[in-house]
Amino acid sequence: MTGNRQKILVIDDDPNIAKLIRFYLRSPEYIIDTAADGKQGFQVAKNGVYDLLLLDMQMPNMDGMTFMKTISDLPVFDSLIIVITAHDPDDQMMAQIEKNAFDYIQKPFTANRLRLTIHNALRHKTLQAKYTELIKSVIKG
Predict the structure, then answer these.
(1) What is the DSSP pairing of strand 52-56 with strand 80-85?
(2) Is residue 53 classed as helix, strand or coil in its secondary structure?
(3) By the 8 A CB rule, do 13 and 36 touch?
């Protein structure tokens, strides 16, 4: 998080979807970066500090499944992932989402659906951080 602004990385090969997400999330509380495919998104995500990633599943160079498997192996990666998919997730995709993502949104999505899912994810991340700090303070005594 940058001050009170939350950093979001949109990883989608469709520039119109990236523009739509930027439009839906126009707010002083977000800093939004974009990546045009999974490979570029991986480079940006591993070198940046993001609160949340919005990840398309079907992209050239590195698809969303490969991205999640690869990024989750990084020891310092702690961004939440929300998957964006045009299709109903099959069993393999659902297993990957359950393991490595906070939630998924199916295209087409509304502004309210996107905002609510992001709000819930970021609230979860904040509460998780507070819980971790509380546990640390209890252990210290």
Answers:
(1) parallel
(2) strand
(3) yes
| Average pLDDT of span 101-120 | 94
| CA 119/CA 104 separation, integer angstroms | 13
- E strand or H helix that includes residue 55: strand 52-56
Report yes or no: 52 and 118 within 8 Å, Cβ to Cβ.
yes
All structural domains of the chain, each given as residue ranges with its CATH number in brackets, are: 6-140 (3.40.50.2300)
List, for residues 76-87, the tens digit of each pLDDT value. Answer: 778 899 999 988
Q: C-alpha distances in angstroms, 135 versus 98, 130, 140?
A: 25, 9, 9
Rg of the chain taking only CA atoms, in angstroms: 15
Decide the pairing of beta strands 52-56 and 30-35.
unpaired
